[in-house]
Specification:
single chain; alpha+beta
Length: about 375
């Protein structure tokens, strides 16, 4: 069976990348050496057990990479397609300082004896160009897509898959990514366990998270504004909907008005501090309360309240439509996972942060 493998699906043409040595923790006996335009020389430690080096894939690795991916795909993808992917992922032809469209890393295991040459035992791909990432996942520019993570059958359950994943994350961060994403077969329990252990969770686009927090802030401001309108000003909004001003409301009406005012700040608190599901529930609860109150006004006060109800429903439909448009599409039988990285610390990351400051009024996550 497959182990620690996101089976090869994203078979796309691309060029590879120049990288520095990625940072991060790796299993004992595994070190990361990502080559630039040639394979760096690595001195293998004289230990009884093998030493694994993770480096940039080069054309000579194509046959073994194709074999490892074919075993992992288990017939789901043709060997010819995998060979084409491996050839293109192993090309190193970009200029220094350029961000590649994609790259591949391989894990090479060596024993401290001259009779046993180093052997490639694992591979992972990283897509950086938006055109190559799965469209249905709606990934942004700053999200690297980890793909084709596979380990040779003879080297599984030894930490190589996790080390390849960590190397791909570090490389993505070097090129300015602030998040990585991947897809895994639903029944691939070893891979799911590895991703979970390494901090991956259900994928949620960054723009959807920003939208949720934005709506929480807007609802909080609306709640404060409603409270001021009720207690300080002339209850303009309730009167517009046909309801009496605060001074003339009965206890039940005042309770409903107070709940309406408090629901906004609660929604903001949930979106700012709670998990996504709690934030979504709070926003839905606020919208449902507002629509319910407007419908009650329509029933009690006729056409004037009906206009308010129509407006409230229209707003909530627009909010729900925007949120649904930002949600990633599902791939049958596969789970979409994501993980936030530290900062995007490389030179490409600094350039992207500078562009964000210039183009987004300095607002960044």
């Amino acid at each position: 069976g497959r182990d620690m493998t996101a089976a090869a699906r994203a078979l796309v043409p691309a060029a590879s990348a120049r990288s520095r040595r990625p940072r991060g923790r790796h299993a004992r006996g595994i070190r990361v050496v990502v080559a630039t335009h040639a394979v760096d020389a690595v001195t293998v430690a004289s230990e009884a057990k093998p030493v694994v080096t993770i480096r940039r894939a080069v054309p000579k690795d194509v046959p073994v990479v194709t074999r490892i991916l074919s075993e992992a795909a288990d017939g789901a993808v043709s060997t010819q397609s995998l060979a084409t992917y491996a050839r293109e992922a192993a090309v190193v032809d970009e200029l220094p300082g350029e961000t590649p469209e994609q790259l591949a890393l391989v894990a090479e295991r060596a024993f401290p004896t001259p009779s046993d040459p180093p052997k490639v035992v694992g591979v992972v791909g990283l897509l950086l160009d938006d055109a190559l990432k799965p469209m249905e996942m709606k990934l942004e520019k700053e999200v690297g897509y980890v793909t084709n993570l596979a380990v040779d059958g003879s080297a599984r359950r030894s930490g190589i898959g996790a080390a390849l994943l960590a190397a791909a994350e570090s490389t993505a961060e070097h090129y300015g990514c602030v998040e990585v994403a991947c897809r895994v077969d639903e029944g691939n329990d070893p891979a799911l366990a590895m991703y979970d252990k390494n901090g991956y969770d259900a994928l949620e686009p960054r723009k959807l998270r920003r939208f949720r927090r934005l709506m929480g802030r807007l609802y909080a401001l609306a709640g404060v504004a409603h409270l001021l309108d009720l207690l300080v000003f002339d209850s303009v909004l309730p009167v517009t909907a046909g309801a009496p001003p605060w001074e003339l409301m009965d206890p039940t009406q005042r309770l409903c008005a107070q709940l309406w005012c408090v629901a906004g700040p609660i929604a903001w608190l949930c979106t700012a501090k709670g998990p996504p599901a709690v934030g979504d529930l709070a926003l839905v609860a606020y919208g449902a309360l507002e629509v319910t109150l407007c419908v009650a006004c329509a029933v009690a006060y006729g056409a004037v309240g009906g206009d308010a109800a129509t407006g409230a429903v229209g707003v909530q439909v627009a909010v729900a439509g925007c949120a649904l448009a930002m949600k990633p599409g599902r791939s049958p039988g596969r789970l979409s996972l994501g993980k936030e990285l530290r900062t995007g610390a490389g030179p490409a990351g600094r350039r992207r942060r500078d562009e964000a400051v210039d183009g987004d009024d300095g607002v960044r996550e």
